[in-house]
Amino acid sequence: MGLAVRNLSRWSLLVGVSNMAVLLIGAFFIFQTHRLCHGRIAFPALLVSLAAPIRLLVMLQTAFAQEAAAALILQDSNDLFTRLRRRAMYKKWLCWSRSSAILTVLQFLFALYLVLDSTRHFSSSNHCLLDSPLNRTALFAFIILVSFVAILQCFTGSDVIKWRSFYETHDHAWKCHYSEVFDHGIRETLCCLGRFNYMSTAEEDEVYSVARLLGDLVAYRASGTGHLELLAALALLQNHGISTESYEGSMEAPEMRIREAEALHKFAEAAYTGPLLDVGRNPCVFPCAWLYRQGILSPWTRNRRPVLDGDNWWRGHAAAFLKYVNLPPEVLRQGRVSQVKCQAAYFVVVLHHLQSVVIAIRGTETPEDLITDGLGKECSLSVNDLAGLINSNYIHYDIKKNVVSSFPHYGHSGIAEAARELFMQIEGNPERPDSESYGLLSKLLGFGCECFGYNVRIVGHSLGGAIAALLGLQLYNRYPNLHVYSYGPLPCLDLVVAKACSEFVTSIIFGNEFSSRLSVGSVMRLRAAAITSLSQDPKADSAVIFRLARRFLYLSKYQRNNTNAENESELQSGTIKDDINHQMHRSQCETYNEGSIEQDNQTIKGGLGISNYGEYMSFDSEDCLNNEHEECSLWSDARARDHSVGIDNAKFTNAFAKDARSINDPVSQFIETVPDSENPSSNDPPELYLPGSVIHIVLEKQTSQSDLKTLWRMQERGKCYKAYIADRESFKDIIVSPSMFLDHLPWRCHDALRKILKAQTAEDQVTVPHII
């Protein structure tokens, strides 16, 4: 692949020609100074003139490295050797690019030095070079040229060749390119934060997976449009006045759930033992607030604090957690704050006065947590992951049958891996899903143990809430008194499993928070909504709209790399279903035959206050473990909905009905390729949903404006909220609003829960005297 002039960027040509002019004119002034000033040399002009050829040399080397990296990208190979060569070539290109950036800074400083030195000579007007008017004019022009080059290079970047001249519209090339860019960027950021091991990793680790996903999302560059145009389209979405879904006539959330969720929220919030919690609450004095929470001012209490895995020497994370929940040290039995790949930070608390064991899981706080969030591609869930549903005697038979018959099931890969690792931490390594365990929970909650008969509550915010839900799926068959409260979790389960765990998992969503709507499918639909928003804006440039349409055409289908693996997965999933159904049938027959056992089970259920559970079962899942699959059969449930993006697809289609008749119209092609939930395709990514029963907290709107006294009282009390039972499918798409990030702050949800309970208490106090 030859280095042609047509492949060079226009700005690079301008910078190269300008530096060549600086070199020639600078050499002339150095010669003139040496001739007219008795052998003296103009030192500032010498620095500027020497920097110009060095910059040209670095630009040339950068161009060669850039060309070699692009050539490896276009090979379209994913073997390990090619990836290692590509990574090495990208490192070489980055090295030359950064050398160019350093030279840009030096040339700017040299130009500033030249300007200051020349100003001194002009003011004195006795310099030997300024005797001639021609020399003065030439020097003035040279100073302007050097200043122009120094400023120009600050805005042109280090790329010499246009990437588009190599990649053109090849979607795969752009994906690989941005995967490498994100991979190097993430690794270097982690290295700057002290995680040096990520720089030496050669295999496909979590960073590589996250970078590949980000590369897929940014591959719209294949159509020739930039990042700023997409940001402009997203800004247009916000201007449509999107509001939350109307809940008129909907069922309000049970007060018992709201009360318990409010009481346990402090544990999910206290799990943020790092400085992140204090940065949000005390942005100006957060270092002091964090050190105070860490107990740095009371080191004599160190020995009374529990020892946590990964804590600092003064046991500050344990102190921060206990100080926030205002509990004595003896209640904190176990925990971890260290972060290694997909390992979640957690705290196990025993509350004897409430007869409960609380497991608090921390949300996103460290770079490793961000990597776990970024592993958003789907993964298949094994039988062990769903043991709490399949092997539990407290789940209705029809629900279990639906879960078993619809295998394979999917979940968020990063969250699923973190939940599996956390299960090993607190429950040990049981040989089978229904076998005896020797972990911490078993020692606390086992028969005759300290906390026998206590309730188990698992709580977490954001990433921690999603991990808590998947951990509950593994523990519910062992601890039927378990309930999970997930505050602002990420979508992490497929629709069948998300509905099946509604008995013991509650997801609480506040306002328009983005995390509960963030998934690969929602991001793809948000890009689809961007072109619709541009098309409805009368000031939008039609050329931009068409380019955006062509851009999204490349990303409308989810490409699969191995068709044979898909067919093999379908065969394996069929085997799993057959094995599980066989085990269910055998277990059901045993239940009917053993009448005494069934009678004992009914006695136990009656003692626990359980009724109307229909038929129960428990089966051996060992045969299913050998058939665990890696690939999955994918489906799509990805139509953009009006309530989430504020766009009416029917209006958009009518507005472009005339233009869509042309077969070459990219807008009409784009409309045809938007995923349809009514006609799912096996080539589209599976949709992930919020786990369990979903409670949505929304700001209460005043519909009546005539009662000014009531309105004034509402304003005096502040904002009022309501909590409703919501449909999980209404959280499939991202809402672009000013509060989408602020609503995710944990204390805003906690404050709303308090106001809801306070309003209910006030209503009860008013209603009781009225009845009397």
Number of separate helices: 29
- Residue share in β-strands: 5-15%
Helix content: 40-55%
Estimate the global geometry from the Cα principal axes: elongated
- What is the first-to-last residue Cα distance? 91 Å
Q: Care to count the β-strands?
A: 10
Radius of gyration: 32 Å
What do we call the CATH topology of the domain at 263-273 and 337-516 and 688-706 and 726-756? Answer: Rossmann fold
CATH class annotation of the domain at 263-273 and 337-516 and 688-706 and 726-756: Alpha Beta
Q: What structural class do the secondary elements suggest?
A: alpha/beta
Transmembrane segments: 12-32, 95-116, 136-155
Keywords: Hydrolase, Membrane, Transmembrane, Transmembrane helix
GO biological process, one term: lipid metabolic process
GO molecular function: hydrolase activity
